């Protein structure tokens, strides 16, 4: 296999300005636009030996390759987000040629147009709230417990203190979420992150995405900063603005990774 395939990053309404010249996609490729009936797909040419069906299945098991590809994919989507509201496609959405991309635009045109219209002028912000133990002054040396009863009393006090701190953090998380929900047009709440998998300290109490009009972004960010600065035992993380991944109804007529529109044969 020594041909070229088409890697698709996103679908957009017609761009009013071109992507910056220095934007590079996966495998260092230069993104360009494929047009069809009022829609544009932002694509780049990639080697079939790397992105063909069999090769791609193997590559998706390579964490190093996957990370590089995801970063390059995101770089193109971020550049688009500065120009418009793109509808990002799944990582490693690949078609045989430009005609295959056009057929995908034609098949999904009604849904693409409706989703782009719904998301126009909006961006996604991510907010995570973590409970973490606030730094405490070093306690004065306490005498060793004189009995088992005294030992248990101290242990109960420690447990109660931790439970109270967690309860306060949960209340702040609920208040923050309610305030941000009131400012957002749509919300997605995700399961709490597992700290062993995310390798992030603290207990994740809120993991949510908010759809916000661009003109209200400054107000939204200010609200996060205002409500997140009250308690040192709570950490609030804000990310964005992103393309509205969480609010796209679907990302392609065929959502499987791999080469679409024709078999590799």
Care to describe what's here?
This protein has 265 residues and is of the alpha+beta class. The protein folds into two domains: 4-120 and 246-260, no CATH class; 122-244, Alpha-Beta Plaits. Helices cover 38% and strands 25% of the residues. It is built from eight helices and ten strands. It has helices at 48-51, 53-59, 63-81, 98-107, 109-119, 148-183, 195-198, 217-227; strands at residues 4-12, 32-36, 39-47, 87-88, 93-95, 122-131, 186-189, 203-213, 234-242, 258-260. Strands 1, 2, 3, 4, 5 and 10 form a six-stranded mixed sheet that branches. A four-stranded antiparallel sheet has the order 7-8-6-9, covered by helices on one side. Strand 2 and strand 3 (39-47) form a beta hairpin. The chain is elongated and about 80 Å long.
Helix/strand layout:
Blueprint: E1 4-12, E2 32-36, E3 39-47, H1 48-51, H2 53-59, H3 63-81, E4 87-88, E5 93-95, H4 98-107, H5 109-119, E6 122-131, H6 148-183, E7 186-189, H7 195-198, E8 203-213, H8 217-227, E9 234-242, E10 258-260
Parallel strand pairs: 5-10
Antiparallel strand pairs: 1-3, 1-4, 1-5, 2-3, 6-8, 6-9, 7-8
